[in-house]
Design goal:
single chain, 300 residues, alpha/beta, Arc Repressor Mutant, subunit A, D-Maltodextrin-Binding Protein, domain 2, two-stranded antiparallel ribbon, 11 helices, 11 strands, rod-shaped, transcription regulation, DNA-binding transcription factor activity
Length: 300
């Protein structure tokens, strides 16, 4: 039986007459009778007994009706599921992001998105930027966030926000009165440095070397958030990205711009070799809106 035959049989079984079944289906009474006869021929056994213009279901029809009802319940479930997918009431995202973002500002963004779409769920995978790009290209992620430019085929790159480096100081530091800090200000200052592979650290060291300044690194920290905590412990000044600095303002740190400006793009990665889901499109739009509408916070 095809779907149309099931629909006709179901209408006849649930209606009080062929006339009512025809009205429900939007076709004529003779058309229903003709289709019903064709179903019986296809099945090879009668479904109804004709008694005085009334159809009486056979035991076979009663048994078949139970299965047809089960099938229509499945179709209704599929219809609701498809409607939920369209309305983002169903769906799952797998997002890859660097450790620093995942341990800092990103959870707040993810929570804001999921509050808007309570039917969705999300897996957050933390890895370095290169691994994010490679995992996305391999199909293990739906989308990714990276802080630095990474070479990887099969990914589309979109800059969400240029994120500049800022200086983080403890309250009462002798440089706290300066509105902007530069390389010369860091001469002989103890520094809390990020990992040697960090792009901000590399660019800072290049600026210092250009002025014959040898950095006085007191502590290496794996994450910018750890650097902010070490600054508050009196271990020195740190140069970190502005997003992490703002996320750690509650520690009591002071934030000052750094000149010359050192900025790296926060980049959204999506796959080029496969289509993205509606949920991925919506989350990407949420990220764009978040970073477009968030005014640059005042540094103080």
């Amino acid at each position: 039986m095809n779907l149309r035959q099931c629909e006709i049989f179901r209408a006849v079984m649930t209606a009080s007459s062929i006339t009512e079944a025809a009205d429900r289906l939007g076709i004529t009474q003779p058309a229903v009778s003709k289709m019903l006869a064709q179903i019986e021929r296809d099945l090879g056994f009668p479904l109804f007994l004709r008694e005085r213009r009334r159809l009486v279901p056979t035991p076979e029809a009663q048994a078949l009706f139970k299965e047809v009802e089960r099938a229509f319940l499945g179709l209704e479930h599929l219809t609701r599921f498809a409607r939920d997918l369209k309305g983002l009431r169903q769906g799952h995202l797998v997002l890859g992001a660097p450790y620093a973002a995942a341990a800092g500002w990103l959870p707040g963004v993810v929570a804001g998105f999921l509050r808007q779409h309570p039917g969705l769920s999300l897996s957050l995978r933390t890895m370095n930027s290169l691994s994010v790009a490679q995992s996305l290209a391999a199909g293990h992620l739906d989308l990714g966030l990276v802080q630095f430019e990474v070479p990887a085929p099969g990914v589309r790159r979109e800059c969400l926000l240029p994120v500049e480096a800022v200086c983080v100081l403890p309250p009462g530091h002798r440089l706290a009165s300066r509105p902007v800090l530069g390389p010369v200000d860091l001469r002989d200052e103890p520094l809390v440095a990020l990992a040697a592979a960090d792009r901000y650290r590399q660019r800072l060291e290049a600026e210092l070397a250009a002025r014959d300044i040898v950095p006085r690194i007191r502590v290496d920290a794996p994450l910018a958030s750890a650097a902010c905590a070490l600054v508050m412990e009196g271990m020195g000044i740190a140069l970190v990205d502005r997003l992490t600095a703002e996320d750690n303002r509650h520690r009591g740190i002071l934030i000052r711009p750094f000149a010359p400006r050192l900025a790296e793009d926060l980049t959204l990665l999506t796959p080029t070799r496969r289509p993205v889901s509606l949920a991925v499109e919506r989350f990407a739009g949420f990220l764009r809106e978040h970073f477009r509408c968030a005014a640059a916070p005042a540094l103080a």
